[in-house]
């Protein structure tokens, strides 16, 4: 496994891979790797000759109330996990390498952002799209891997790849779950014992909604009412949103048809949890 921190070094490695006609799978991250990241690396390892991992805490996607400096970092641990996962190349640039000056050009995302978590994170996806545009150009991967845990991010990246004609295949990897169905997240440790049990209601509500739709229900409002009722009855958390949209365009619909996403966000005492499922109706 090789580790590089400059764009020049990265491009030298990528040229070597391309000259050898090797396929490249790319997993962009902000580090502090967890099981979700490792699943992405596992899928990339299966499907490509070369696996490239980037670790870069991107300041452009942090809002004014989000502390860039306190974002967790552990380079030594990340490198060990990456090596165990079969990563060939890690790109770990400092901020000064990615943004030597204040950016004169950024990507502005106009669609797929004013819903779900994006509604309360203005500018977040502009930062994501900007850094990925840079990374896609540097790494030139054949495939890029992202987790469906953050389905809105996957939708935005799908639009980015399509809009800018990147010759990249987006691989959306299913959410990793605990045995009881709870979506794995670093935030789960902030749940108390009672809330940890209650939190399973999020995925249960989504599964019940899916069953209702498969039985023929096509009213968005009735499905939302079911999900809301199950979460409200079985948890002490405060519902942030329950939304049903088409996917991946994330547009409003009233009658359920085509590919849709049912997404929820619930605030517990010290943790805000999100979950979703997609269904072809």
Helices and strands, with pairings:
Layout: E1 2-4, H1 7-19, E2 24-29, H2 35-47, E3 50-55, H3 75-84, E4 89-91, H4 95-98, H5 124-139, E5 143-147, H6 151-163, E6 169-173, H7 193-198, H8 200-214, H9 220-234, E7 238-246, E8 259-267, E9 272-280
Parallel strand pairs: 1-4, 2-3, 2-5, 3-4, 5-6
Antiparallel strand pairs: 7-8, 8-9
Helix pairs in contact: 5-6, 8-9
Describe this structure in words.
The protein has 281 residues and is α/β, with parallel strands linked by helices. It is built from nine helices and nine strands. A six-stranded parallel sheet has the order 1-4-3-2-5-6, sandwiched between helices. Strand 3, helix 3 and strand 4 form a beta-alpha-beta unit. Helix 5 (124-139) packs across helix 6 and helix 8 packs antiparallel against helix 9 (220-234). The chain is globular.
Which features would summarize this protein structure in a list?
281 residues, alpha/beta, Rossmann fold, 3-stranded antiparallel sheet, 9 helices, cytoplasm, Rossmann-like_a/b/a_fold, nucleotide-binding
| Cα-atom radius of gyration | 20 Å
**CATH class term of the largest domain:** Alpha Beta
> What's the SSE pattern?
EHEHEHEHHEHEHHHEEE
Q: Largest sheet, order of strands side by side? A: 1-4-3-2-5-6
Helicity level: 25-40%
- The CATH superfamily of the largest domain bears the name HUPs
Q: Which fold does the CATH topology of the largest domain refer to?
A: Rossmann fold
The major pleated sheet works out as: 6 strands, parallel
Report the mean per-residue pLDDT as an integer: 96
Shape-level CATH architecture of the largest domain: 3-Layer(aba) Sandwich
- How many beta-strand runs? 9
Q: Kindly report how far apart the N and C termini lie.
A: 44 Å
Give the assembly state of these chains.
Answer: single chain
Low-pLDDT windows of residues: none
